[in-house]
Write a structure and sequence with these properties.
The complex is a heterodimer. Chain A is mainly α. Chain A is built from 17 helices and eight strands. Classes of the chains: A mainly alpha, B alpha+beta.
Amino acid sequence: MDRNISFGTIVATLGSILIACGIAWLIAQNWHAMPAAVKIIVLLMLVSGSYIGAFLLREKGYPGIAKALLVLGALLYTLSIFLIAQIFSTDASLQGFAMLLLLAWVGVVIAAYIFESPVTLFIGLVEFTIWIIMQFAAFAERANEFAFGILALYFLGVGVILYGLHLVHRSWKHSFTRTYLHFTALFILIFTYLLSFQLTLPTLWEDSGASTPLLLLLGFIIIVGIAAFIAGLKLLGSELTKQESLGFLAVIGIILTVILLSLAVRNTVGTCYAQNCYSYSTQDECAGAPEQMDCAWSNSYCQQRSCGTYTDQQQCVGDTGLNCEWYDNSYCSFKTCSNYRNAADCEASDLDCTWTNSSYYGYCSGADQQAYDKQYERQRQLQEQCGKLTSHDACASQETCDWRSGVNFWGGRSQGMPPIMWFAWIWANIVLIIVILAIIWYGTINHDTRLINLGILFFSLMVITRYIGFMIDLWGYMSLALVFITGGGLLLLGGWAIERWRRRLTEQAVTK
Amino acid sequence: MNRNRLYFGLGALLGIALLFIIYLSWPYLVGQEIVLDTRPVDPFDPLRGQYMVINYEVGTIPSLAGAEEGETVYVALAEEDGIWRYADAGFERPSNGIFLRGTVMRNNGETMNVRYGIEQFFFERNADVPTTNITVAVKVSDMGGARILGLLQNGEPVDITYKPVSLKS
């Protein structure tokens, strides 16, 4: 990749991004006055124009501005896919969106190879990353299995694929070598950074993730990752030092320990809520719900029995427990004064109701809220019983309760976390520091300033994030100061030891 | 970069777009027109604009024993007063008749929700689209794939009111 980007190139690239954003909003506007076919032709002509312009500018010696047009071409092609989908009113579900992104990134990556454009590849890889997340969400939504641990494994596998592709391109001395390397670093840094949050760790395996499509995609990513890595190793042969390949595997290994550690903490932190009748999805399950929950099947859903669940008068007035009444010959509601619309019904009621005539309208009022109160009191009692249970096992043993993993910042700060959770979180942060240092080290030995800057950027981000985190958790500076001084001291000593080791090696080399 | 590369690159990108258009157009080219009954609402998609989510009458059908979420089902339709309604459903593609290919979204044992990929209709932002007494004209291919032809109100194409486009729209 050309490492000397001119100011003009940056300005032109920003211009391309602005044009693409403007066209995206024009598409969203969906102007009816322009026929669909004309819209598609105009956009595809703009795509072609961008690439032809880039080709001509490259020939005339303006590679920077050509690069900006390649960015525009890739973005406009992506928008064309969404425009076509809009015109044909295709599926707007998560799976539909993922499908469009798949078409977009495949096209952009193909264009990147044909036009030998690292910046186009970068756009393709960003779209690929969004696609992975959307495809996970689509599969998870379909299976109702939101196991973010599987997504974490997708990310890890994709990191290996990207590094493998970097090695393969390095063996070919291809211009995409550095793009793949930089994207691998960015990808792994973002991923490890997200794993370093207390909020993330206990929720990774809340669901088992045992859904066939989720696991099939994971298997595919792992196979491609291993194949790409092995291909890279074979092609590079002795050009790749053992230090580098083992170093990469070590980084992947320690990130894997965080994901596996998250399995150990999955049920250690969470809140016990009252089970909801809606969680029973079939009529049979609903009928088998615990008696205290008082669930009833109504309108194709399992709902807590209330006056509103009755659709005929006989059932409505027959439920003495809830004290319901059939109103206006059409609906069932709890018996209360405010439901009476005229003075006669109001006064005739066996409740203690009074009809009041104001200047504009009359209304019936009284203190009776029995049925309404009964319904809510029942739910409140269940919530109170479940809320007292602070462990997963105790909560799971109660049929009426439902355990939801995760640090509940709203219910109090995270001082109540068990030691294993603290350990997992501290380890996740140590791993983040190791990954940052590994990337800075790799950037240093390869004289790659972008990698070094990326590492420093994430180090700064980590310091700011942990500062905010400590303020939320402990509301004080003391522990933060101690952690930073200890960590800083270790890094300083480590840095001094590495520098001494490096000098000794240099001296030995000179002596030899 | 030589000229052949440019032609090849443009050919690849335009080719993908063209294949996508042909795939989406297939039911329009070979399909049969039917009308389905609905119950609509309307959200917004940031990349594709404003659209109406259409809940079809045939979107909720009697449960098929063993049908799981995400599974493909074929829903056979029969015409009744100009509207095509549920007649039967199964996991195997029917050999004749009009049918839709759908995906099971939820199965509660009594009924199940099925999506056919035609549950959204995109229209101009801020346009006023009627939402009552709506039926949808759809083209269905012989494989069960469907595409929306247009919205109908009381059997006639809907009258969409468009606000004039201005710099503030």
